[in-house]
Amino acid sequence: RRERQRFVDKNGRCNVQHGNLGGESSRYLSDFFTTLVDLKWRWNLLIFLLTYTVAWLVMASMWWGIAYLRGDLHQAHGDSYSPCVANVYNFPSAFLFFIETEATIGYGHRYITERCPEGIILFLFQSLLGSVVDAFLIGCMFIKMSQPKKRAETLMFSRAAVISQRDAKLCLMFRVGNLRNSHMVSAQIRCKLIKSRQTPEGEFLPLDQCELDVGFGTGADQLFLVSPLTICHEINSESPFFCLSQRSLRSEQFEIVVILEGIVETTGMTCQARTSYTEDEVLWGHRFLPVMSLEDGFFRVDYSQFHATFEVPTPPYSVKE
């Protein structure tokens, strides 16, 4: 079957774009810091470089302007003449003086004299502005680098979901795993069924979201994710798949969105991993191959069999039938 448009990709990216915001786009500027953190890396680096470059050139131009207005550029800076900034004769020397001051290098060749109140005021302004710019941009880069998005790439989901019997009950199952030795603290999993439907009043809901029970009442949704786990949704009278059979599965159109959340043990930050399964990726009458084996003093996980399934005898009828 031709692959259709997904609401959530297999890698967790949501295929939703916001358009025609009108005047609401100004809300992004009201929270400019978060907007900057959410940008892609290439735009962050471009803004980082442009901000510092423009700030350096503007401040260097102000130091050059003070020297130009005082006539320091054409005077010999000796004992008989006291300039605003010693040994500043042109724009490159004014730029170097600004860099030395901003970076607190202090080579000692260029310095502000006590007979230049405008220079002292500009120096104070430069120090305050530099601290604000450094705190804003460096803080933004630090938060972006420490985001736990990459941690989600080491959380695996099986490529397909399966429907088969477990404990004499028809169940929808999929597998999750953690590739790292560091644990996900307070890991919790949720499932959403996204399917179009029409209400009795005639209202059409194109992307109606329905919760799939994966063990809320029993606590099975709270995961101890040290080895691959098979998540199970029991298909009963409360399940939206109550009328689903092997035959009707071929004509259905739905998407199951899986959301795995937890706290990264090493950083203490919350991480979220997502994936989805369309009706083409739900295998009726299949079960996952075992991946755990006991060896000398430890358990080994064979991730080469993580996505593998095999057929098992399963009634082709729905639970309702």
Describe the structure.
The chain is an alpha+beta fold and 321 residues long. It folds into two domains: 24-146, Helix Hairpins; 150-311, Immunoglobulin-like (Sandwich), CATH 2.60.40.1400. It has helices at residues 26-30, 32-38, 41-70, 91-102, 117-145, 246-249, and strands at 155-157, 161-166, 169-178, 184-198, 204-212, 222-223, 229-234, 255-264, 270-278, 282-284, 286-288, 292-295, 298-301, 309-311. Strands 1, 2, 3, 7 and 10 form a five-stranded mixed sheet that branches. Strands 4, 5, 6, 8 and 9 form a five-stranded antiparallel sheet that branches. Strands 11-14 form a two-stranded antiparallel ribbon. Helix 3 (41-70) crosses helix 4 (91-102). The longest helix has 30 residues, at 41-70. It is elongated. The protein starts with 25 loop residues before the first helix and ends in a 10-residue tail after the last strand. The mean pLDDT is 86. It is a multi-pass membrane protein. The record marks 134 as: Role in the control of polyamine-mediated channel gating and in the blocking by intracellular magnesium. It catalyses: K(+)(in) = K(+)(out).
